[in-house]
Automatic annotation (TrEMBL):
Gene3D superfamilies named among the record's database cross-references: Jelly Rolls, Winged helix-like DNA-binding domain superfamily/Winged helix DNA-binding domain
Organism ancestry: Bacteria, Bacillati, Bacillota, Bacilli, Lactobacillales
GO MF terms, alphabetically ordered: DNA binding; DNA-binding transcription factor activity
GO cellular component: cytosol
Domain of life: Bacteria
Domain named HTH crp-type: residues: 159-229
Signal peptide: none
Keywords: DNA-binding, Transcription, Transcription regulation
Cyclic nucleotide-binding domain: residues covered: 25-145
InterPro entries for this protein: cNMP-bd_dom (IPR000595), cNMP-bd_dom_sf (IPR018490), Env_Response_Regulators (IPR050397), HTH_CRP (IPR012318), RmlC-like_jellyroll (IPR014710), WH-like_DNA-bd_sf (IPR036388), WH_DNA-bd_sf (IPR036390)
Protein name stated in the entry: CRP/FNR family transcriptional regulator
Amino acid sequence: MTKKDQSEKRVCSVSHRGCVSMVPIFNHLDTLQMEEIMETVQAHSFKRGELIYRAGDTSDVLTIVNKGSLRIYRLSESGKEQLVRVLKPGEFTGELALFNETVHENYAEAMEATSVCQITRASLQKLLIKYPSISLKILQALSSRLDESEQQAAQFSTESTEQRLASYLADLLVEDDQSAIVTLPLTKKDLASYIGTTPETVSRKLKELEEMQLIRRISSSKIEILDEEKLLFL
């Protein structure tokens, strides 16, 4: 093996280790178990705007975000886009396919230069049999996502656009952070898609919230929450 090959192997190993160790379904395992998982992992990189998978593609791998971010979205029959979630480092997609042979219903797109780690269904199923604790962690993650989906569905049916936007902004606040300034992780287009409205409506509602002195727009992506309590009870 050449020095270049050895160097690339070390870089790949470090990347795999970081990817695996940051994932909640794996980070409770010991070092030897981590090493075993890393042997099954494949790394891939994507440029901004590249699709990791599209609706209709065979779903047979668990995809973990190592660096960057992914936007998961679906398209309606009319072609309207609905943002489902945004995945950050340590988060994953494709877990349902690990239990049943299926196809993707959504699209996964890199929001920036993004690297992911992937584990095939066959490899992970062997790990699930050997380490049942991983199964429990996956079930916890699925339960959390189901809860989020139900909350989102309830918001669409019972809350106004203004209320959905206000709830989203309040959710960005970090509990143990004294600062009331939040950074929008989504573009205005993606934010509009996520809360089920248009970019124009998002701009108008942000202006209205500012006029009500509930928020203060510092820049296009930074907002100061002036009154969280009133924001949540619009």
